[in-house]
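Lab notebook, design round three. We kept the backbone fixed and only want residue identities now. Task for the bench partner: fill in a sequence for the structure below.
Input structure tokens:
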């Protein structure tokens, strides 16, 4: 592995720069950090709910706004944020320059709205650092080989932070946000959630992909691949947060469950009376793939009369696309009818030793049962057990399952938790 440089990459999320006052406070924070880390690259997201507002604006002029023009629109939010932060730094006498993805050579593929970074040409960034400037880069966006603007998907500022850190071989990628680090549950839902001092990349990827939006899973994947440690910490104070890294220190025995997470942005599709013969499931999932619809969980059950049921879970944004396909499947005799249920949510427990520790799933189901919460579907993998339940019960479910695995009395049991 290549040796890390003295460069630090800090990524500030939208909540950290939501108002002009917060932008000034972040400028102040950056100025303080410069004393310790003079070579600082900062990646910034759009202010507050700007991206949501831009999406809502597009929906007022088009029914399903997407593609190239949507990215032209969404990328504007980040440009506002970086220029304001550079102005605020210059106002304090700190040399700073803001750069868009095009200006600092962040190349992506051409998959508008869900683009993937292919390369970063670090020359401009390095020359600006050499000139003694703080380099402030737009998160979430890139450009294709023909200079079309792309975006990386919602929450993609984290991916930019990770990719820039990897390209620069930074000593750390700091994800600066509105919570103290990665906790055992969303602290806005569970008041007593525990702050982890250290997590492995694998645990973090699993937590993030099951709904803990504090970090984008692809950001952790990039840093894992390039061996860059991540430090998730608060934007509003300088206390240590959660270190995410790999290596021998991280393979020690850890708590079986490190998090309880919720995914509220899902929908469930059930296809009824599906003929029990080869090729039917292939046809359904080929059609979904052809529409670019990513399926997260599949349950197929056969019944005695050669007709079965296929249930699958997808991201809520794909529910309309799946509903359209149901019409086609009915016409072709694949199903007698299909139901799209948008009032569902998924609760997951995550941990590296889940599969090798008996009884954890039973404890999760027991905690839900005690609250009278019905489980609709269950899935499990090596590091996760997930249940689909009614959307309006999700917060109560998370609190109950969290209480089961993190009762106050068990505080500090995990080897690498330092209670502060
Ligand atoms: P940013 O604007 O910095 O990108 P996000 O809103 O994307 O911030 O992510 C931070 C939020 O993630 C927190 O405010 C918190 O509500 C939520 N969150 C969900 N699960 C967790 C968890 N396990 N640990 C910490 N935060 C979590
Ligand atoms: N501004 C983008 C979003 O709201 C990217 C990000 O915040 O990371 O999704
Ligand atoms: Mg985010």
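Proposed sequence:
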């Amino acid at each position: 592995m290549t040796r890390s440089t003295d460069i630090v990459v800090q990524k500030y999320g939208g909540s950290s720069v939501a108002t002009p006052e917060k932008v000034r406070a972040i400028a102040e924070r950056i100025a303080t950090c410069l004393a310790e880390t003079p070579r600082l690259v900062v990646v910034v997201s759009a202010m507050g709910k700007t991206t949501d507002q831009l999406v809502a604006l597009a929906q007022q002029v088009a029914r399903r706004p997407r593609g190239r023009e949507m990215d032209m629109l969404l990328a504007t939010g980040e440009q506002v944020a970086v220029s304001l932060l550079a102005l605020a730094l210059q106002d304090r006498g700190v040399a700073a320059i803001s750069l868009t993805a095009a200006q600092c050579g962040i190349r992506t593929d051409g998959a508008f709205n869900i683009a993937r970074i292919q390369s970063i040409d670090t020359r401009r960034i390095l020359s600006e650092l050499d000139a003694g400037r703080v380099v402030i880069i737009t998160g979430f966006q890139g450009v294709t080989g023909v200079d079309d603007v792309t975006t990386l998907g919602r929450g993609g500022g984290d991916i930019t932070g990770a990719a820039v850190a990897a390209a620069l071989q930074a000593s750390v990628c700091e994800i600066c946000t509105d919570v103290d680090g990665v906790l055992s549950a969303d602290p806005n839902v569970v008041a007593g959630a525990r702050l982890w001092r250290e997590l492995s990349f694998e645990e973090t990827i699993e937590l993030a992909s099951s709904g803990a939006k504090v970090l984008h899973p692809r950001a952790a994947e990039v840093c894992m691949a390039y061996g860059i440690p991540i430090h998730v910490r608060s934007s509003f104070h300088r206390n240590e947060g959660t270190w995410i890294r790999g290596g021998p220190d991280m393979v020690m025995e850890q708590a079986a469950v490190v998090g309880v997470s919720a995914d509220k942005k899902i929908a469930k599709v059930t296809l009824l009376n599906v003929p029990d013969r080869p090729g039917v499931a292939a046809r359904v999932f080929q059609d979904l793939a052809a529409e670019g619809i990513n399926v997260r969980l599949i349950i197929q059950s056969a019944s005695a009369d050669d007709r079965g049921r296929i249930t699958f879970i997808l991201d809520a944004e794909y529910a309309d696309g799946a509903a359209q396909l149901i019409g086609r499947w009915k016409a072709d005799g694949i199903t007698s009818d299909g139901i799209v249920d948008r009032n569902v949510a998924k609760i997951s427990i995550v941990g590296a030793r889940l599969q090798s520790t008996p009884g954890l799933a039973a404890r999760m189901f027991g905690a839900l049962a005690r609250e009278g919460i019905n489980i609709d579907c269950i899935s499990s993998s090596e590091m996760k057990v997930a249940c689909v339940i009614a959307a309006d019960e999700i917060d109560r479910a998370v609190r109950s399952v969290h209480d089961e695995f993190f009762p106050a009395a068990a505080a500090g049991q995990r080897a690498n938790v330092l209670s502060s």
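Keep this in mind before ordering anything: The chain has eleven helices and 20 strands.
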